[in-house]
Design brief:
The longest helix has 23 residues, at 45-67. The protein has four domains: 2-93, GMP Synthetase, Chain A, domain 3 (2-Layer Sandwich), CATH 3.30.300; 112-277, P-loop containing nucleotide triphosphate hydrolases (Rossmann fold, 3-Layer(aba) Sandwich), CATH 3.40.50.300; 282-345, Helicase, Ruva Protein, domain 3, CATH 1.10.8; 359-449, Chromosomal Replication Initiator Protein Dnaa, Chain: A. By secondary structure, it is an alpha/beta fold. The strands form two sheets. It has a six-stranded parallel β-sheet with strand order 4-6-7-8-5-9, sandwiched between helices. A three-stranded mixed β-sheet has the order 1-2-3, with helices on one face. Helix 11 (282-295) crosses helix 12 and helix 19 (417-433) packs across helix 20 (435-450). It is globular. The protein is 56% helix and 10% strand. The structure holds adenosine-5'-diphosphate (ADP) and magnesium ion. Adenosine-5'-diphosphate is lined by residues 93, 119, 123-125, 130, 155, 157-163, 288, 316-317, 320. The site of adenosine-5'-diphosphate has 18 residues, from helix 6 and helix 13.
Length: 451
């Protein structure tokens, strides 16, 4: 069932703008097929309406061509855990073009693997928050392996790391198509390694990486705690570095803050240039919105841009997601893009984001972020490695869920409500002076929002 829909999605992806695909189709999945109907699960009513009004025809004709039969297409709003699946976050990006060892797509010529040609420097808006990372990325792209090596870019989710990595690769390819460039997420690198080990084919694995001129590794934090991957990555890194090849790495945190990473790797990460991307300020957010609207041949009034920017803290993917929804809503209701319409759309959006903030979700995400176990958070252990994440988790439960203090205490293995209150006070006051703590808390919030 899901395969039919997957095939349809692949077709649809080829036919519409990537942004529209990411916004409207990525969060869908098929869950039933009758003899003459296929039912597609969508996150909420808003999606249902938009898909019906804008894409029903396209979907039906695609289904028909793939299933070789005329089927009616129905949309149904999925409850959170219907059919044992969680609906995907709204703003999940389209699957990266990078598909791991087997499914790698080639762009341009065979020398570029995994690059997404959509992410280039010319559509990256520079603001005070990302100026430094942008300049470093440009310098590396202009003179690979001669300026900063490795270049290590870090920042929270949705701030443009992946975009910059691809932009570097694309520019290098454009300047000299002979350069062998590979973009890979650390996750796909790990999968590639595991499969190669299973097939006992490490020489082919090494052949895929060692001859490269440029290696772009995204989300390196993924290899935390994975010893074998770290070891192999270390060898790959050294081989490239020693033969003066460029390595660019992205991470959601500063090398020093990465836990469960071997010291020798951490010191490699820090040996070139470390550039951070901070959350964008209001002006940058507004500039990004104008640019994105322009890409869709739309003009949005300034008060609407400011309204969106004010309401989305930092994640640029969300900024874009909300903008696209406002544009789509305006086009299918045939109403102008104005403040009133923007407010209506935001209401849906906020509701959807917040439903990820459940106590179990908070516990799970905090535990994963600090590489500890949920049971540690619920335990009585008092070591700092456990007690600080526990206090952060309690803080988030108090801030982001409706649960009462005693209820939160119960879900933390039967703690007293005063413990929860104390944790909340302590984290909120420490966040005022401790940037590192604030950064951790924000990262966790973003992870929960993303689902
Ligand atoms: P990250 O990898 O840091 O999570 P991405 O690079 O995937 O973030 O960026 C999320 C989305 O926001 C992408 O669609 C990207 O094109 C867009 N984006 C991020 N920063 C900028 C920017 N400065 N200018 C334009 N678009 C941006
Ligand atoms: Mg990314």
């Amino acid at each position: 069932m899901d395969t039919l829909w997957k095939k349809c999605l692949e077709e649809i992806e080829k036919r519409i703008l990537p942004e529209n695909y990411a916004t409207w189709f990525s969060p869908t999945y098929a869950f039933t097929k009758g003899s003459d109907t296929i039912t597609i699960a969508v996150p909420n009513d808003f999606f249902k309406r938009c898909l019906e009004e804008n894409y029903q025809g396209l979907i039906e004709s695609t289904v028909e061509s793939i299933a070789n039969a005329r089927l009616r297409v129905d949309f149904q709003v999925a409850s959170d855990n219907a059919h044992g699946r969680t609906s995907e976050p709204l703003n999940k990006p389209a699957p990266e073009k990078e598909k791991g060892p087997e499914g790698v797509r080639f762009f341009g010529n065979g020398n570029a693997v995994g690059l997404n040609t959509r992410y280039v420097f010319s559509n990256f808006v520079v603001g005070s928050n990302n100026q430094f990372a942008h300049a470093a990325a440009l310098a590396v792209a202009a003179n690979p392996a001669q300026t900063y090596n490795p270049l290590f870019i870090y920042g929270s989710v949705g701030l443009g790391k992946t975009h910059l990595l691809h932009a570097i690769g694309n520019l290098i390819q454009q300047n000299d198509p002979r350069h062998r460039v590979r973009y890979i997420s650390a996750e796909s690198f790990t999968v590639d390694l595991i499969q190669s080990l299973k097939k006992d084919d490490m020489s082919a694995f090494r052949e895929r990486y060692r001859p490269l001129d440029i290696l772009l590794v995204d989300d390196i934090q993924f290899i935390a705690g994975k010893e074998r991957t770290q070891e192999e990555f270390f060898y790959t890194f050294n081989a490239l570095y020693e033969s003066h090849k460029q390595v660019v790495i992205s991470s959601d945190r500063y090398p020093k803050d990465m836990q469960n990473i071997e010291e020798r790797l951490r010191s490699r990460f820090s040996s070139g240039l470390i550039a951070d991307i901070k959350p964008p300020d209001l002006e940058t957010k507004v500039a990004i919105l104008f640019k994105k609207a322009e890409n869709h041949q739309k003009k949005i009034p300034q008060d609407v841009a400011i309204f969106i920017a004010d309401n989305i803290q930092s994640n640029i993917r969300e900024l874009e997601g909300l903008l696209l929804r406002i544009i789509a809503f305006s086009s299918f209701t045939r109403r102008p893009v104005d403040l009133e319409l923007a407010k209506e759309v935001l209401k849906e959006f906020t509701f959807d984001r917040n439903k990820n903030f459940t106590i179990p979700n908070i516990l799970k995400t905090v535990a994963a972020h600090f590489s500890i176990k949920v049971t540690d958070l619920k335990s009585k252990q008092r070591s700092r490695e456990i007690s600080i994440p526990r206090q952060i988790a309690m803080y988030l439960c108090r801030e982001y869920t409706q649960a009462s203090l005693p209820e939160i205490g119960r879900q933390f293995g039967g703690k007293d409500h005063t413990t929860v209150l104390f944790a909340h006070k302590k984290i909120s006051s420490n966040m005022k002076e401790n940037n590192e703590l604030t950064r951790s808390v924000q990262q966790v919030i973003h992870q929960i929002e993303r689902g």
